[in-house]
Amino acid sequence: MNLSKLSLSTTTLSPPSSLQQLPHRRRQFLDVRASSSSSSPATISSSNSNRRVVVTRERGKNGKLIKALAAHGINCLELPLIQHTHLSDMDRLSALLTATTFDWIIITSPEAALVFLDSWKAAGSPSCKVAVVGAGTASIFDEATVSSKQLIDVAFVPSKATGEVLASELPKDGDEICSVLYPASAKASHDIEEGLSKRGFQVIRLNTYTTGTVQHVDQMIFEQALSASVVTFASPSAIRAWVNLLPESERWGGSVACIGETTARAAKRRGLRNVYYPSNPGIEGWVDIASTFPLFRFLLLVHINKRGGNFLEITTRSKQQKSRDLFPTMSSCHSFCCKMNEAVEDEKLRRDRFSNLHIFFVVVAIAVFFCFQL
Questions:
Q1: CATH match for 84-213 among 3.40.50.10090, 3.40.50.150, 3.40.350.10, 3.40.50.2300
Q2: Which of 49, 88, 118, 137 is deepest in the core (most CB within 10 A)?
Q3: What is the pLDDT of residues 276-295, one digit of tens each?
Q4: The pTM is what?
């Protein structure tokens, strides 16, 4: 698991492939491989137990994320921000599944998969070939009944879990007409049908459900969420709901862990800072961000507070103690330490330059003062 970045005010390094952060002025990327602890396992273990991550999916659908984070020793605070509503196209979906056979049925979210399964059962459970956007959506079909899995062939998953990549990679037999049924959220973008249409696919899109904000949020839970280590988001709708709840007078600066790039860009557009997301959207990368980023922010603060310390000391201690609690390999540890040292040196250089500039202006001010006295 690679961690993208710890925020400093200087230098820019290349981000690793598995985790990205949206562009932001004067920020820094660090390539780190880590598990769940530091060079002081007892200290970090205690810190983990006190950390809290906020989960914001619809009520009853946060269980998988809560369980995964609990495996990292992290407590979760459930604050549902969205709710789903079925639309009239859901009935049309059942009718189409009964009357028509499609070359592909495209499903791009767990909720779309659940809605599809309901309509599919109402249509008499016909055989069909499905393309899903990623592992999280595929898992909904994996968890279905045995009879469902025999009749629903999940035949394609793109190399990257985004609609654009799915549209560019979906298999097509030569120049033959290929029919696609795309049941989706009314708020989903049009990237898939536009991309497929350009490649010659015939696409029918049905808006089977929509996502809206919840009518009521417990104010006490929301106040706790504001001070949490990380808030997780799985959709732009959840981002919108969160921002609308924030007091206008408060500039919230917490860390945001998004399930994918689409949600992350929505967060950035809404003015949120410290926005992180896995380059390949899905539950595993999402959990890695939410569980690991606060740990490395903690390590950075420890190092800066020590001032005289050096991150390469961690490498030495790990060798002596034969500890693999922080890094799975010594080479990854050494890589992290070197980059962290470079970052801290750059930060010190920036501070020195600022200090020298400050002294220069003081000297100029004194000189001007004496000139006027003469």
A1: 3.40.50.10090
A2: 137
A3: 887 666 666 666 656 655 54
A4: 0.59
